[in-house]
Amino acid sequence: MTAPTPASPRPGQRGADRAAMLRVDQAGEYGAIRIYAGQLAVLGDRHPMSREIARMATQEERHRQHFDAMMAQRGVRPTLLQPFWHVAGFALGAATALLGPSAAMACTAAIETEIDDHYGKQLDALGPEDPALSGAIAEFRAEEVEHRETAIAAGAENAPAYPLLSGLIRLGCRTAIALSQRI
C-alpha cells in the first residue's frame, strides 16, 4: 500500500474540507447580518441607504439559513467563534456607519470583495463533486457581487481614507475566514 501523495487527498479529507467550507460560509453570512444590523442601528430607518441595507441583510439571512440547513444535514458544527462574530460584526457595522454612509458602504464593498474571492476559490476546489454546495455558493456569490456593486454605486469609494479603511476591513475579513475554518 502506498501513502497518499500531496496531490491526492487522504481518506475523509474532502469531507473535512467541505465541513470547513460550510462552517466558514455560515459564519460569514452570520457576520454580514450582524454588520448590517450595526449599520442600521446607527443610520436608522430614515436614511436613504437603510432600505438597501435591509434588503442586503435579508439576502444574507437567507444565505445563512441555507447554510444552517446544510450543516444540520451533514453534521457540521458551527464555528466556536460565533459569539465573537456576533459582537465584532455589529461593532464593525456600527463603527463604519458612525463614520458616515460612505464608510458603511466601504465596509460592504471591502467585505464583498473578499467574499467574492473566497467563494471563487471554494468553487474551484469543489469542482463538480458537490453540486448542492457549489450551486449554493455560486448563487450566493452572485448576490454578494451585486452587494459590492451596490455599495460602490452608493459612494463607498468616497469614504474618508477609503484605501486604508478598505484594506483594513479586507484584512480582517481574511483573518475571520482563516479562523472560522479551523475553530
UniProtKB/TrEMBL annotation:
Gene Ontology CC terms: plasma membrane
Annotated catalysed reactions: a 5-methoxy-2-methyl-3-(all-trans-polyprenyl)benzene-1,4-diol + AH2 + O2 = a 3-demethylubiquinol + A + H2O
Cofactor note: Binds 2 iron ions per subunit.
EC numbers, comma separated: 1.14.99.60
Keywords from the named record: Cell membrane, Iron, Membrane, Metal-binding, Monooxygenase, Oxidoreductase, Ubiquinone biosynthesis
Listed CDD domains: DMQH
Enzyme class: oxidoreductase
Topology in the lipid bilayer: Peripheral membrane protein
Residues that bind Fe cation 1: 29, 60, 63, 144
One Pfam family cited in the UniProt record for this chain: COQ7
UniProt-annotated binding residues for Fe cation 2: 60, 112, 144, 147
Known role: Catalyzes the hydroxylation of 2-nonaprenyl-3-methyl-6-methoxy-1,4-benzoquinol during ubiquinone biosynthesis.
Protein name as catalogued: 3-demethoxyubiquinol 3-hydroxylase
Organism: Sphingobium nicotianae
Gene: coq7
